[in-house]
Amino acid sequence: MRKSKSPALSRFESDMRRLLTILLQRDVEDPMLLGISLTRFELSDANGQAIAYVHSMLPMEQKEAVRRLNALRPHFMHLLRKAMPKKRMPDLVFRWDDALDKTHQVLDTMKGFKSS
User: Fold this and answer.
1) For the whole prediction, is pTM greater than 0.85?
2) Mapped to the 3 state alphabet, what secondary structure does 6-65 carry?
3) Which domains does the chain have, with CATH numbers?
4) Given pLDDT bands bounded at 50, 70 and 90, which one contains residue 1?
């Protein structure tokens, strides 16, 4: 059973999600990362990580996109620390959000059954 988050933790998570979304839109100049967006954001209780799940509707190499975003992590962490002064800031990790790809596959399959 998962514990419910405190209002302060939920607000912190929401603020980080909002700021990171803005930073992805404003500060990423890598042409390969155009169109990338934050789909989910989770704070991990176990190891003090903030996991940012990203996806793009444009075709791109997923592993390379995540590698490039993780290379930009120090820049994002610096700006997040400036915007949200906290004693302990969770370490930021980017991951590709496969859930959207799976959803599109299911929808495509359903469309195939419908047209038959």
Assistant:
1) no
2) CHHHHHHHHHHHHHHHHHHHHHCCCHHHCCEEEEEEEEECCCCEEEEEEEECCCCCHHHH
3) 7-115 (3.30.300.20)
4) very low
